[in-house]
Amino acid sequence: MRRPSPAVLTLAGLATVVAALAPVAPAAADHRAQPPATVTLVGNLQDEVGCPEDWAPACEASGLERLPDGSWELLAEVPAGTYGYKVAVNGSWQENYGAGGAAGGPDLPLVLEHPARLRFTYDDASHRIAVAPAEQPSAKPTKVDRELAGTSLRGPLTRENFYFVMADRFANGDPTNDTGGLSGDRLTTGLDPTDKGFFHGGDVQGLSDRLDYIADLGTTAIWLTPSFKNRPVQGAGADASAGYHGYWVTDFTQIDPHFGTNAELEAFIDEAHGRGIKVFFDIITNHTADVIDYEEKQYGYVSKQDEPYRDAAGNEFDDRDVVGSPDFPELDAATSFPYTPVFRSEADRTVKVPAWLNDPTNYHNRGDSTFAGESSTYGDFVGLDDLFTEQPDVVDGMTDIYEAWVDLGIDGFRIDTAKHVNMEFWQEFAPAIREHAASVGNDDFFAFGEVYDADPAYLSTFSTEGRLDATLDFGFQSVGTGFAKGGATTRLRDFYAADDWYTDADSNAYASPTFLGNHDMGRIGTFLKGTGSELERDRLAHALMFLTRGQPVVYYGDEQGFVGDGGDKDAREDMFPSKVASYNDNDLIGTDATTAQANYDTSHPLYRTIRGLADLRRDHPALADGAQLHRYASSDAGIFAFSRIDADERREHLVALNNATTAKTVTVGTEMRRSTFRQVWPAGRSSLRTDAEGRTTITVPPLSAVVWRATGRLPGRAEAPAVQFQKPSAGGTVGGRAPITVGVPDGGFNQVTLAWRPVGADAWTTLGTDDNAPYRVFHDVRTLAKGSLVEYRAVLRDSSGNLSVASTYAVVGDPEAEPTPGGGGTGGPVTQPGAVSMPGSHNAEIGCPGDWQPDCAEAQLSLDPQDLVWKRTVSLPAGGYAYKAAIDGSWDENYGVGGAPGGGDVPLVLDAPRDVTFYYEHGSHWVTTDANGPIVTLAGSMQSELGCAGDWAPDCMRGWLKDPDGDGTFTFTTTALPAGSYATKVAHGLSWDENYGDGGAAGGADIAFDVPATGVEMVFTYDVATHRLTVSSRAAGAAPELSKAKAKWLRDDLVAWDVPDAASRRYRLHWSQAGDLGVDAEAVTGGSSVPLTYDPAGLPDDVLADFPHLAGHEAFRLDRAAVRKVPEILTGQLAVASYDPGGTLHDATGVQVPGVLDDVYADAAEADLGPTWRGNRPTLTLWAPTAQDVATVVAGRRVAMDRRRDGTWTVSGPASWKGAAYTFEVTVWSPAAGEVVTNRVTDPYSVALTTNSERSLLVDLADPALAPAGWARTTPPVVAQPEDRNVYELHVRDFSIGDETVPAAERGTYLAFTRDDSAGMRHLRRLADAGLNTVHLLPAFDIATIEERRSAQQTPACDLASLPPDSTEQQECVDAVRTEDGFNWGYDPLHYTTPEGSYSTDPEGPRRTVEFRRMVQGLNASGLQVVMDVVYNHTAASGQDPKSVLDRIVPGYYHRLNASGAVETSTCCSNTATEHRMMEKLMIDSVLTWARDYKVNGFRFDLMGHHSLENMTRLRAALDGLTVKRDGVDGKAIYLYGEGWNFGEVADDARFTQATQRNLAGSGIGSFSDRLRDAVRGGGPFDEDPRVQGFGSGLFTDPNGAAVNGSADEQRAELLHLEDLVKLGLAGNLADFRFTSSATGEEVVGSEVDYNGQPAGYAADPAETVTYVDAHDNETLFDSLAFKLPQGTSMEDRVRMNTVSLSTVALSQGVVFWHAGTDLLRSKSLDRNSYDSGDWFNRVDWQRRENTFGSGLPLRADNEAKWDFMRPLLADSALDPTPAAMDAAHARAQDLLRIRTSSRLFRLGDLDAIQAKVSFLDTEPGVIAMLVDDTVGADVDADRDGVLVVFNATPEATTVTGAGAGWSLHDVQASGTDAVVKGSTVAADEVTVPARTTAVFER
Fold first, then answer.
1. Domain ranges, ordered by start, for the chain
2. Which listed residue, 71, 308, 1015, 1566, has the most CB atoms within 10 A of its CB?
3. Is the CATH code 3.30.460.80 the one for domain 1160-1257?
4. Which residue in the list 145, 264, 319, 416 is annotated as catalytic?
5. What pairing do the DSSP bridges indicate for beta strands 241-242 and 233-234?
6. Which of 290, 450, 1447, 1760 is flagged as catalytic?
7. Residue from 724, 815, 807, 791 nearest 118 by CA
8. Distance of CA 1461 to the CA centre of its chain
9. Is residue 216 flagged as an active site residue?
10. pLDDT-wise least confident of 1387-1401, 1409-1423, 1455-1469
11. What family does the Swiss-Prot or TrEMBL record give for this protein (predicted)?
12. Is position 1235 annotated as part of the catalytic site?
């Protein structure tokens, strides 16, 4: 079938699809079962490659061959022509691909100027087609390359020193010509020396007379303002002015009589030539004097669209169609123009010379220019007659005029108003003048144009396209002045980086005349007014001009310190004694003289400076036009450094200028290694020495320039460095003026010639030669057809003449698209969400039903399509609020403080009612309001490029400066700005009412900045305190920032850093013991540095084994010399930096050091840290390897400590130190502080502390004084195996703070456990008698968040008991004091190895040690072992926080850091890193101390999954090493368990093999099982609706009606699944346990049962499973049942369900774990997180008189979202347990313990026994029947053949069959207090159990 599109693609069609050739993201691959049978190239080129017709998908001749790698290829000879093509698959149109790999996509264009052999390729994964030349040019230099290799041009002129002089104002050598030969008053003669707008008398003779003065300045070329005869006076009245300046020409053939005669001029030229000085004429081709008037007496510009030109016959035409053509039509002055040209007088008809200038049809006649658009070249320049330069006769006429002046001996032209003349004029005029000059012997004739613009992309077109030799460098004037005024020197860097725009085959930027001021814009002295140190700045400006590339232009009078009052007439002072009052009152720079006297003072400091600089350029020509290689620039005032190298001399000059008012020191690179540079400016004898890398450190005095010259030449090279194409990449797209760029990774001084040719051609066409990196030229491909295939060649010539080459190819298409900025954002497109809201505590105030409602309509923001910022304005009353941003109406995606995902609430405080506007930007996720601080925007000339509707619009937020971290520094970053020059200001409040300009001045001047290249990242930084805006640029994607630490130092010689394209840059490790490293624009400053070498082999396997999360990071090596310095380096601030081959900073970051510290100081793991004792003499040892100094302050006296090789510091003291308080003084670099600090810290190994942990105490735990009576004989009750443990989780303060049976002073303390007769202890003994054997204490180490002084602890100032049960008042009262009260769970460790002081009757001193030991004794005596809850996974604080200990000793070591070096906080707090050796040591040493010195019998590890399995197994081994004989304890009997959760930055073993549930299998270490917990309770801890039911709360069998539970069928299915989880839990949650699934009826193993996408069974041994249904976290069991059971459930039934739930724990094979009080229906008034809820919500009454339920709504922060669920429950008095209910629950709980301990069948101890004996019988939903059969396998219980446990969680009695005969109700239950369970019955092969009952049968 023929393709249904045209057979031949037109060029217009090519244009529409060529953009598809640009690189785009790969298409998604199709997953074919088999590759295509055929792939065919189809298009209108098929008949050219052997097919019978075009567009034939079945033609074999154009078929591609499948290659071994799976790609497809066709080699074909293709004739010259224009084509379109695509591919067809399997021989038909059914599957075809075009541009971009799109199915059925547009044809790809191909244009060949020559026949060529091409390679077409196709990738079936992306469906992309590509074309390339079949043969690539030689990879080695050829003869053609040697001929092609050029040098960077230096001609015709590049070494001139211009003196720009206005003849009328310089010197009056002949007073007789002052009137120009005219008679009359000033309006006739033009002479009035008192008026700055009239002739003053200067002339050519005066120039001749003062030629010595000019020559002695070092001048080599004089540029004269126009000298042609002018109309003497123009204008009338106050607007009258004379033509003294020369720009109102009437006669182009003679000089103005006011200046002299042509003969005098010729004599002056000869005299100048005799002194070696060239003479340049300022010429005009754009206009003449204002002679022509318009008959209409209207002068506004009329466009060609409104009034086209008409030829003499009246036909409309567009002059652009015939520009410069001999076919240009004849014109009629009366009819051809929009205005009718007329003359004001008869004399005016012939006033112009040559005569052709009097023809009015030679002018545009369109009115005055607006200097924009078309009018810029067609409009009259302020009324001056604008020549019709598009006419060939005008071109010829002007050429003839100026050829005559060439004949006179003029050496060159400065061409006025060149930008206002059409480009075609210059293309004819400039070559013609050069050719004529050459014909008369002037081969160096030089013409440069005035193009008043600073954009090099535009300026350069006049030399590259317009064929002028150069243009005046207005860009330099802008940046040079800014530099002299103290601007960032990066502006200079960026300015010179754009020089490549000028490079072509016959010109470059080295020829550009550079200047600081002129007769139009004003003087440099004017611009420097008010800056202070004007003379020094003026000198500095001239130094910059003379020492940088280009040809300096000194504007007459600047050398005498002239300052002027502004531009134009104010900048045209007299050098001879002036009579102009406004000149004479100026305060000149560097002199006491005024313009009222002659100013030819050759001793003037500026004259001498300029003369010296000119001499320097003469003596060292490299400084004039040697290659300029960038070395350094600063992001603020500071050093600008560069090298100048003459390619022939091959000697490097290093130049550095400092525009700061203080001396600056930097390190720069050179081409000279281990070489000497001697200072040549200012003259002196100082020298520099470079290192092995060619680097040297230079210091430049303030406002000064220094030049050094190498004593030797560039070293020879054996071969040229490799050159690589960067743009375009092979097959890339070129468009417009396309950058053709190559890189030279090895650097060096090179010259790179770039050339191109159409594919198929033989000859290369040179584009230009560049001599400094980045090596780049711009190829103008606008005249090439889109789709043209072109090749590029780069030929590098190094400093020794060696060559290297590279090639690439590209297709002509559209220019690279500019990136589109996101809303107020940083550069890339931002995909906006569907909705954004601002939920917060203000929502009710704006009409929402409640607060914190992300789906409330009134809280929704609207997207402003102009800004791409979401906004909403609301009215709010005064008050304190908080808010966040929520995406798409839910909490699933939300952003808080700083734009952090799920971040903290953003505070909002309003002192008075007001309108508040909320703003949210999705690119940065920043949410704020105009009440949180100013809304700050950039308003400037770049806003339209950012996407604003217009420029200078402060209300457009595309340039929104943001301050997410609230530090007062607002930033905006973008890559969206095209190359060019711009200006901006800072606006507050989206208006001009408050705005800041240059220097932070209110309403100040515009802030100019340059964008050096498209795609560069521009960074705008605004300091709200000073109002100063800094603008800097950096490579896109790079963000040098030392406050972050993205590099990781892993071994003494190895650093890891994740960087792109690592081989293309160079790297250094920087350090400073002074902590003064900083990021300047181009370097890391301060300190010292050593090189880092990129290791392409990557990180070794052993390193990746230690740091698996660093896979993908690049490896960098230190050399041996640097390794020897490592201990020194580690004691300072650190940074690594990447530099481009030219030495410019690309990126920099701080360094994470834990890896290297572990490597270098591995021996420290064996050290005894903290206080140790030898007899009665103490020794203090602190590990502080990065510290610069450490001392201890003991008893108020500072004592120095000695550093050891292992990084420890130690000091021994006398016996008198015993009991003394001490701290350490650690002097160390602190990343958090950003400086070297001296921290006063306590000992992380403290064993005793003063109150509130202010100081450590020198205490020996072996001191008999600290041992309570009988301590040595204290032994715990025996727990034979972990499965025998029945654990009761208890909080020290909770236990007794409300127990009136404990003495008041001892309530809430350790000593309460010694009161045998207290209610609490009686409660514990009852449970112990029943079988409880372990008390688990919540954290009892030193806690950071509890005030230890009882007298200072605050209590709620409310009568809490009197408030309603569902009130918010209780939580408000508790919340008001909770940070100052005496309660906290204690998961905020401060010192790991000291008992908490608030639990002691005296926190001052070691009494807490004694009392803790007495508590252990009391519990042991009651039959209870002691387990401590330990929290080694985090600390309460980090950084410089006063509560931070570890991080203020070894900053950045003890905590786990994220990729950027910030402390990870997934644990809620500052995560520690026990994978680091010394943190692991601290943990193990601490645990061993508690075990050995406090006789703690077990340890529960908080968030144990954040520790490694290796941590835990090493700890296990260390504990196993404790013996009764040596240590007083049996370490092997100590049990370890913890929370094996898998989350956070370590999840899924990202950093190490974690101690998580699954990984702990086989370790013997226990972990909490959330499987049974969730199955029994229902749902999970974080359900939005807390009414999700489970097995123990009535799912399906007793539904509560909540929709969240689903339909009846859904509930039944879920219940059966939950039963599987309960069964598995009852069997110890063993991974390999086999049982019959309730859900499927099939046999499964534990690991096959699903738990939220994870294997439910994970343990290898039941000792590894801690079984529980409630703990301190989340709601208590009773509170959970309050949510989940139907509200009408009776209290009796609630008691029963409480018991059923507890029974699943008590009768399981794992370790039993109960939360304290769960046995007596403990409530926390529904609080899900009571960690800081005070005594009120955490209290428990062991006497069972009152329950805490109904104590008010719990704290807002964690519970408010569920308050609506809570209110009706708390208000229901029927849900408040009575004493009788609590008594019943307590009794039944004891029965469960008795049952468990009655038989070992509940504690079988291993998988084999459990698998053999435990099974489950068939039951109804909601019932589980567990049979433990002791007749199978080894006999475990001699008294029983088995037990049968029926868990009936349903509201109906149940009968279980198949159980066999011989059962009887367990004796405990049969004799117990539960009458209901006694109703259980036994029949043949079945048992019946009452509703909501767990019955245990035995036989």
1. 11-135, 146-154+717-812, 166-284, 290-379, 836-1034, 1047-1159, 1160-1257, 1566-1723+1777-1898
2. 1566
3. no
4. 416
5. antiparallel
6. 450
7. 791
8. 13
9. no
10. 1455-1469
11. Belongs to the glycosyl hydrolase 13 family.
12. no
